[in-house]
Amino acid sequence: MPPKPTVRDVARLAGVSVATVSYVLNKRDDGRARPETRERVLAAAAELGYSASFAARGLRRGRTEQVYVVPRRPGSPFAAALARDLAAVAERHGYATAMFVQGDWEGYLRRHVADGAAIDLWHRRGFDQARLEPLVGMGLALLVFGNGIEPDGFDVVRSNELQACEEAMRYLVGAGHRRIACLRRWPGEGQDDYRAVRFEAYQNVLGELPEEWLMPYTDNSWERGHDAALALLDRPDRPTAVFALSDSAGVAACWAARSLGLRVPDDVAIVAVGGVHEPATRVTFVEPDRMDFTPAADLLFDRLSDPGPGRVLFQNWSLVHRGTA
What we know:
Blueprint lengths: L6 H8 L3 H8 L9 H14 L5 H8 L4 E5 L6 H16 L3 E4 L5 H5 L6 E5 L12 H5 L3 E5 L9 E5 L1 H14 L5 E6 L8 H13 L7 E4 L4 H12 L7 E4 L2 H13 L9 E5 L10 E5 L5 H12 L6 E4 L1 E4 L5
Parallel strand pairs: 1-2, 1-3, 3-4, 4-5, 5-11, 6-7, 6-8, 8-9, 9-10
Antiparallel strand pairs: 10-12
Helix pairs in contact: 1-2, 1-3, 5-12, 8-9, 10-11
């Protein structure tokens, strides 16, 4: 097996210095290399099959050159969008990204496996932010998603999700609906879950409703939401509107109504919270204005290069009218 090409091989083929190759391939040439020189270096690296070693480079610089995404639900659209945008920004800085899927993320990050992390603490009521102090103390750059978290040596992303859900409920009430059912998880399940905040908005606007209007289902699957919606809508005193605490439950409610011959929104209005769209249903959603985490990722890399006082970035949610309400 032939030896692996080295940075010196790339420099020799490109006719430049080793330092120039290092600047170009590590994406920190800052304009020091002319465009034609940069192209020559990249072409030489491609011809030789050379790729830089993150591990070796990190050892030389005293960094891992890696950032982690720590989501609450790794398979969610939120986690996917955050990982996508963080990876794009990380690539510009010569960093790699990884996702922590399950287990003790605090203990794992304390093992110096990363230089920074984007941590999803949305709806973690009661989370003691003192738990973040050891990570900040060891120099880890943190970007934390959570309304109840105060920036203290790290940056925070907040949202108005609760207020946007309340706006959606007031919209339904203002449209004349009085029998508004709620598709939610079983009482007592997932009290730290994102649905708890959404259910709080429902209760804030409507107050205490009879239990029969609070239709629970056992998980967030389409099938369970569909069964629960059928049970709600196939009754003599059916609700005139449904507030679904997840996007999948909202889509399922639309199909359940159609299967019963109900017209949406004429016979029953449906509003859901989330934002995963299905063109066939065009659900009216409470959702983030933009599922773009590039500004948040930029904030994390700003902190990696220049630590300072904690900052707050705001993510706006709003009611987006489509075809179901």
